[in-house]
Amino acid sequence: MERIGFIGLGAMGKPMARNLLKSGFSLTVHNRSRSAVDELAAEGAAPAQSSAEVAKASDIVITMLPDSPDVEAVVLAESGALEGARTGSIIIDMSTISPTVAQRIAEKARAVGVSFLDAPVSGGETGAIAATLSIMVGGDQKAFDRARPVFAALGKTITRIGPSGSGQIAKLCNQVICVLNILAVSEALTLGKKAGLDLDILLQAVSGGAASSWVLSTLGPKMINRDWAPGFKIDLQQKDLRLVEEFAESLNLPLPGATLVRQLFRAVQAEGRGSDGHQTLVRTIERLAALGE
Amino acid sequence: MERIGFIGLGAMGKPMARNLLKSGFSLTVHNRSRSAVDELAAEGAAPAQSSAEVAKASDIVITMLPDSPDVEAVVLAESGALEGARTGSIIIDMSTISPTVAQRIAEKARAVGVSFLDAPVSGGETGAIAATLSIMVGGDQKAFDRARPVFAALGKTITRIGPSGSGQIAKLCNQVICVLNILAVSEALTLGKKAGLDLDILLQAVSGGAASSWVLSTLGPKMINRDWAPGFKIDLQQKDLRLVEEFAESLNLPLPGATLVRQLFRAVQAEGRGSDGHQTLVRTIERLAALGE
Hints:
Largest sheet of chain A: 6 strands, parallel
Oligomer: homodimer
Largest interface: A-B, 73 and 73 residues
CATH topology of the largest domain in chain A: Rossmann fold
CATH architecture of the largest domain in chain A: 3-Layer(aba) Sandwich
Order of helices and strands of chain A: EHEHEHEHHEHEEHEHEHHHHHH
């Protein structure tokens, strides 16, 4: 059984690392703040002092970090994972980062005989805890096949999209759909509200047909019940939309809808509510219509 | 059993009238062009020369017409349905028209002792043929209860939304969600295409989670397979978005997303492709990225 390393024990990384332990993998962990390391160590993981030390003790190293610069630092910097990684090992970045950065890291890894997979996930904290994440993977077929049992301990839908970077690109496509579906439900519910409809009845009436979506059935009721608790925070969604925008710009690709949502999410941030769940967009549409709280 | 009248035997109206015959209702029909009337008459319907004549022979009259002025003319004009309607009868308009016009017609009907229900549908020609339409109804609870067996012969999800006009408002909310979900999938697939992804794999990878929707699973494959045949035509969707815009304006309600899609659909119409299905929006996004055919 492959020995696994895990770097980045945040809201997503900690439950994922825990699921690897539960599946019987031997696990070495590292994290910027110490408390999460201690917690996992108490559950059977070996603590490490640096990313390089994690890599030295592992056949497969997983990183789960906030953004592109974090992954670059943890993998490429001095005492980073690549410094400690043995020839033939695999580094899997499961963060959502720039596809171009993922491709660049993959090249540097390849140059020293290490495989790199970009494998961002969808499904949020709930999916991380329940091991039901969707995992979109870019990189070598061979490394993907070897990493499959590891992915199977973390998620449900595991898809190799194509070469390095393509997992990140698929994740960005996923986010484009998700945020525009949120705008769709936000505008429809605000239209119904301003016109005086019973929104529960409206939701039920439109749920069966061409308007149906995960966002409608999962976030629609939260919008109606004024539940702003984050499944996924606006601030994180904005980070992903920045990645979408940067990548689309590099392709000379205009995305008018995704750009519009990014601007509207900014209005949420301007209110100081970036820690709300992304369903809070409905409040922004309501405020445009002077329906605001 | 109530005697039914049906006015407007177009792509939607003809299969709906046929389903009423199949359910055993006695049916009187009228249509601007004669051929559809003859067709239904051959299947057992009684032909009528005017809307008033249909109403005289019926307890419940259904109209299924392109737009608000058509319904106003057929119901309110000389020799119209209201002229022929008996006290205690019901007129049901199943077209998608302006909520304000629906409310106005309801008032005029009420003044002469006739009930009026607005009952627009979702589900398109396929749903009309299969009797699986979603029907969103505004108007009196009593009239709705009496009309229920008629709706049951035409559709599957039948919801009374509220008072007169609210069926039309719910339909407009439905369309807002539907068109923004189409923009969502169009932008995501174009991003994936320009970045060189295998779109079938992408679609499969994002279908299981937060991006899932009826539009993704039903129209996504058509976009990938370049199938522009209409389930629902751009020209009709634009008519509905005009109704959304007029109604939202009357409420002082800005709908930035729905407005954006309306502008982009206009680009489809500018190409002379207004008869394509609404999934053809993906071509417009592709053309913005110089990926066009």
